[in-house]
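Subject: design request, 144 residues
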C-alpha cells in the first residue's frame, strides 16, 4: 500500500506538470535538471483500532525546484503551491479516491516544500482461532 500511494502522487503530478519538468522520487541526482519535482515520503505511522482495524497515515513533502534562470522564481513557487493545493486534495489509489489532509507549504532557500498527509484505514485478515473440541467430564461423590 505504501508504494501505491507514492505512485498515485507521481501520476497526479504527471497529469499537470509541464513536459520539461522532471519528477524524481527515489532521490535527487547530482546535477539534476530544474524545474523539477521531488516526492519524498517523510513519515508513516500506524495505530491500531478495534479488532483487526488499523489507521495508517503517510506524510509527504513534495519539493518544487523552479527554473533557476527565471526572474519570477518566488511567484512561480507561489503559483505552484496553489496548483498543488488544488490537485493534491484527492489522489486515486487502487481505483478509490484518497483525500489529502493537513496540506501546507513553505518556501525554504528557493525551494517550495508542499506537505500533505494521506490517511488510510486497513483491515488485517487473520487466521481463524480454532474452536476447542468438546470435553467430557465425569464426577461423583466419595463415600466416607
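Subject: RE: design request

Done. Sequence follows.
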Amino acid at each position: 500500500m505504501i508504494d501505491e500511494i507514492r505512485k498515485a502522487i507521481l501520476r497526479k503530478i504527471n497529469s499537470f506538470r509541464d513536459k520539461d519538468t522532471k519528477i524524481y522520487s527515489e532521490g535527487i541526482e547530482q546535477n539534476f535538471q530544474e524545474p523539477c519535482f521531488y516526492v519524498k515520503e517523510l513519515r508513516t505511522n500506524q495505530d491500531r483500532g478495534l479488532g483487526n482495524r488499523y489507521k495508517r497515515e503517510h506524510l509527504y513533502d513534495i519539493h518544487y525546484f523552479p527554473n533557476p534562470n527565471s526572474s519570477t522564481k518566488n511567484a512561480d513557487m507561489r503559483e505552484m503551491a496553489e496548483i498543488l493545493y488544488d490537485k493534491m486534495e484527492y489522489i486515486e489509489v487502487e481505483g478509490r479516491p484518497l483525500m489529502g489532509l493537513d496540506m501546507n507549504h513553505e518556501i525554504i532557500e528557493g525551494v517550495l516544500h508542499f506537505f500533505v498527509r494521506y490517511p488510510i484505514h486497513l483491515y488485517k485478515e487473520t487466521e481463524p482461532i480454532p474452536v476447542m473440541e468438546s470435553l467430557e467430564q465425569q464426577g461423583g461423590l466419595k463415600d466416607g
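The two ends are 70 Å apart (CA to CA).
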